[in-house]
Amino acid sequence: MTMTTLTHLECGACGATYDPNHLHTICPTCGKPLLARYDLAKAAQTLTRESLAQRPPGLWRYREVLPVQDPACAIDLGEGGTPLRNVPRLGEKMGMPNTYVKDETLNPTGSFKARGLCVAVSRAYELGARELAIPSAGNAAGAMSAYAAAVGLPAHVYMPDDTPMPFSVECRTLGANVTLVNGLITDCGDKVRQGVEAQGWFAVSTLKEPYRLEGKKTMGYEIVEQLGWRMPDVIIYPTGGGTGLIGMWKAFDEMEALGLIGSERPRMVSVQSEGCAPIVRAFQEGSEHATMWQGAVTIASGLRVPAAIGDFLMLQALRHSGGTAITISDEEMMYYANLLGATTGIFSSPEGAACLAAQKHLLEQGWLQADELVVNFITGSGLKYAHLWQ
Ligand SMILES: *Cc1c(COP(=O)(O)O)cnc(C)c1O
After folding, report:
1. Residue nearest to atom 1 of ligand 1 (CA)
2. List of residues 6+ apart from 342 with CB closer than 8 A
């Protein structure tokens, strides 16, 4: 069985290359994210439309283009392989019959963060990391805790002390050491850095190690395969750190090199909250990088990312795809979470619901045509956010 065809890591900004068989964080030369590169000609020999049709669902079916070498290190909790549903009852309300939802709520720990942490923790385990750590106010911490527990790696979670209770309870129950910090997520990041320096922990923050992106990119492979090897016209994605947006865009280039698709691409749409929209602002200003968003507030904790290290990669993907970026109010997110729930049976957190609000606005603005095929990413379950309905 061919596992990985990983060849090297390449900086997404300066292009410097590194040996992938050591634990890496960001580019030591310029401080930007490192991207995994594969021998795609070799991968193309076994990763074909026909071979994929024979493989079980889930993320590891794309193993040639994932970084893990030893099958024993590929942790499998049932992540990926989530339904992509055409939802006519919702589509009718949206005025767009080809409305699709990718139901990522069904992943382990209830969000698509499982995909990224599955691959990051598997690879860190393979490369000998002894303890893991993460600063997180949301779903990433639970996902890291689950994958660390599966292989018995100690896990350290730092959360702001105003994080809703279900997030910390989940991590503790999954065996992580949880520290509630009287401060912001940036203060939690400082605590993790101290542990990295003093204790040799390995931090799995978004895009500050190369492999969460690889897990998230599988969403790109999956939706095209699920549509019968057809590209959607538009993908709408609720954007925080941007791993999924950048990852799917990377996946499409790999798929073309593998001969799985041609040069067609979807228009990529980034959705953010009105209370924290650094990428939307940078997109509208025509900037290559985003500036820090001051005083970020939104009920959508996954979108409360005032500064993202992968900002330039997101902005490139949005522009190269002919896409756009749009903000949504928290009230609209709740409205669409209720509409989505009542018309599809999916209990979504506000982030995923934001996609539908964006779809409606873009249709009204004439940016979308009523017959276009749109994939909305329902990124996480509403269960951990139930307090928002109280
Ligand atoms: C983290 C998160 C997001 C944002 O994802 P990124 O890939 O970091 O942009 C969106 N929705 C939910 C539910 C999340 O947990």
Report:
1. 302
2. none
